[in-house]
Amino acid sequence: MIRINDGKSQDGRLSIVFTGGGTAGHVVPNLAIFSHLRGESKFNDFHYIGSKSGIEKEIVSKNGGIRFHGITCEKFRRSLSPKNILIPFKVIKGISEAKKILKEISPKVVFSKGGFVTYPVVRAAKSLRIPIVIHESDISMGLANKMSAKHAHKILTSFEKTRDTLYEKFDEKVIHTGSPIRREIFQGDKARIYSEFEFDKTKKNLLVIGGSLGAARLNESVSELMPEIWAEWNVLHVTGRGKMSGAKFPNYTQVEYMNEIWHVYDWADVVISRAGSNSVFELMALGKACIFIPLSTGRGDQIENIQVILEKNCGLVLFEENLTKDSLYRMICNAISHKNQLEMNARVFGGYNGIQKIINILYCYA
Predict the structure, then answer these.
(1) Which of 54, 125, 190, 239 could be cross-linked to 266 through a Cys-Cys bond (beta carbons 3.0 to 4.6 Å apart)?
(2) Is the separation of the CB atoms in 56 and 139 below 8 Å?
């Protein structure tokens, strides 16, 4: 017999389950929504289902008020790999584990942000008749969301173009909400950066976010460029974990990671960043003058995301195949020359925070 979910635990709590993992980009938006729901919503019991050893466990554990549950999962690979043989068995095990967890929690709704861990959770929720809401950050759907979409009650999108593409197949259950942006992003204080690092307050500020994937070429180009720009610029270079080179220049600091990135956003006059959807929407919402260098590997989602930036003229784009010390220098000069226009266009594009619309949709299930 299929159990019909009532979304209410034995002591009357109203529960919601978040799921998403594999990269921080699938976890941080979930926590942005959780942060807004906690203490001021109809939901009062919060849970997160992720992989047993993935990055999501580390990130979620730093947030009080939400309980983490780990399940078995295996990364979906588009290419031929011997590890693909294990996928059906691990998916079946993951579904069983997720089903057991969901029965205990009895949530009103499952909110899925994508990543390979989410498919077993979605399948388990479907079997228990628990409503499922999924959100797609990128222009094109990731593999896990593609597989989950037919089971979802609602499919939410960051980009309007994604909604338009999916509407023909899924009709009214596709809703463009925008991206769920962390409230902390709007609480940056540049004074924190000046107090932590010895930067010259008379110089312009450049933030470089290399990221953990494919960052070597960007990091190398920045190091090569420093002798030409240190006299005019302070540079804070977030290299990604394990990517610090130890390069030393005046007015230049390398760090592996910034826990409170919003303070650096507030400090920066120009930002050089990859083009993951979450970063794009956060930087646009803040109205930053940006140079995006989309990651050319993977499924090409960053290349697709950046096309909208080009269409809206709200940021500069430098493709990786054209990345050199000289091309990067020209882009920085261009960004500072057109800073006011870039900031204005960015605010127009990114002025809509999807958090409240997403929360209103989740409230429909409370």
Answers:
(1) 190
(2) no
